[in-house]
């Protein structure tokens, strides 16, 4: 309780909560209408005597009473008083930290706070709960049911969660709670990574409903194929890069995507309506960039192009001042910024980001959310008057927005539209990817102060406490670059041919209606039947089984190292371990021709557009052209060698893209190579397996290549960038597969068929098939019939059940 002793001897009582900080005591009344009282610690012996201060000509005297805790508070105040007497800021900070650690060591988690009396605790440790501009120390406890955080000062009360998503940060753990939990999302910072890792182990072991954050590569694949939106993908990337709404110095960063804030209508089909996402904010204005580069070239080490960052606590609160005024007042010593420097207009802010000499800020997630309160002065704050005399009230919106909700709706449409979907990967390269650092960052004009990068300065090596505190303060206030997630170019999103997200529906409908109805219906029916077949791949029904071979079945065509049937159904082509390719006439029932074109076993063959593609263990892939007019005639055929592709190891498998312009090959040493058919030089090459690659195959849209190998891995590679974007570890070696870009049907060493969901990296169904390894698989174009062959010398016919 607080008593006002200045009212002519009367005691006026006000109840509330007392907060003891490192340099002051704060009394917060229960009545929100009454002002908060902040009392700075003074260098006197009696710290609990009635406190006096002068307000104008009036002297006011207060007395604080804390029932039952007076002695404890006196000890804390005396310790803090001794700390405040130290001359150096670093020494003061160190002593305050020691006081805090000492109190934490003498306390433990109050197990009376468990939700259930039967809960069994597994681990307890000290941590800090991070919220904007404040860290609250306390105890974390994990039980077999819940995760608890109990602040040392009992404010707020303990939190518990039993269904959540966890993101592991550098020394922290972020917990995202469901709507049914009794707490909001919390961000825990630990004093050691060992304790953080141990707690995470117990979470994964005992909390059955926990969901771990997926990898960046997994989210990339989901985003590429349209399973998550641009907004969701950016949120996931921010989480993975240690950005949190609970930490203003590492707040999630989102891009400006619209550049038109003056038109009465927003045209999302016009590229001129959008910002160039391949450039950082500071490089969008050519004249300003030239001035910055001139300064950069003349600057002594360390070089940097921009004197401010694109995300900092000041910039975040610049946008959020109307809904979080307390944070702005805390950051700016109890004052709002000058009225003309506040977030007054979206158009003015964008213009300043383009033209200002020190303004390079991006946006925050709220600009693409559904809560427009940050654009309105709903609290009736006195934010001052501008030079023109007008009061700072609601944010001025572009002419194309009728109100704040309409503004956010159109911002969301812009973020998800065709243009942004096709170019968002370029912005990701700048913020989270390979253009964030090094020579690529210099070339992209994307260089910030070294202090802003993770690992840019080793604070632990700074011995002087004052310098260390100053450095940490500078890093926190200046802004921090997200943790780098990608070191190679980010692949582009797979976008539909037409996107009905325009702000002008009539224009979109004209585009869609321009497609031929008959062509659209035919394509839709074909694609729909394939989708239906793949959605029922886990319901394969055995149609027939035939044991008609003396040895293992190694290839299927509707058998040798590989075989295929030519389009006229009259010739079967077989490759052999004796270095040859054989042509068999079905009509005459005999071998018609032999191609002797390799110096080692011919491992795989492919036929496309009257050309034969052969892969061999002699480390080459060759393309042959049939010279005869009719290869099915009973005559010997001449083949001319058109091209030869050299490898460093024996080639075990190959595949052609659906368009026939790209070639993918896999070697016995685990190297995947992508070739342009028209060039002898590889486009991309990477070692994606630790042993022999059994099979490679393009996705139907030619965007990805899936490969399986001796290392029991399924690997997805991006065709455009050559980037390895997903690796799935199987329980056993997979020998062959078919896939539609999302779902995989594979055959393994045990003889089972497995249906995989690549987006979740999990087997969703297993089907018993052969009594030994499944060695080959064939699927018809409609995806309605599957044939498998194995070492048990059988071929099995399958059909999905609808």
Secondary structure layout:
Layout: E1 2-7, E2 10-14, E3 16-20, E4 24-29, E5 37-40, E6 51-55, E7 58-64, H1 70-84, H2 89-105, E8 121-131, E9 134-143, E10 147-151, E11 159-161, E12 164-168, E13 172-177, E14 186-190, H3 193-206, E15 211-212, H4 216-224, H5 230-240, H6 286-298, H7 313-320, H8 325-331, H9 346-355, H10 404-416, H11 418-431, H12 438-443, H13 465-478, H14 505-513, H15 517-535, E16 540-547, E17 562-565, E18 571-575, E19 580-585, E20 590-596, E21 602-608, E22 611-616, E23 620-626, E24 639-646, E25 651-656, E26 662-667, E27 671-676, E28 682-687, E29 693-698, E30 704-709, E31 713-718, E32 724-729, E33 734-739, E34 743-748, E35 752-757, E36 762-768, E37 774-779, E38 786-790, E39 794-800
Parallel strand pairs: 12-15
Antiparallel strand pairs: 1-2, 1-7, 3-4, 4-5, 6-7, 8-9, 8-14, 9-10, 10-11, 12-13, 13-14, 16-39, 17-18, 18-19, 19-20, 21-22, 22-23, 23-24, 25-26, 26-27, 27-28, 29-30, 30-31, 31-32, 33-34, 34-35, 35-36, 37-38, 38-39
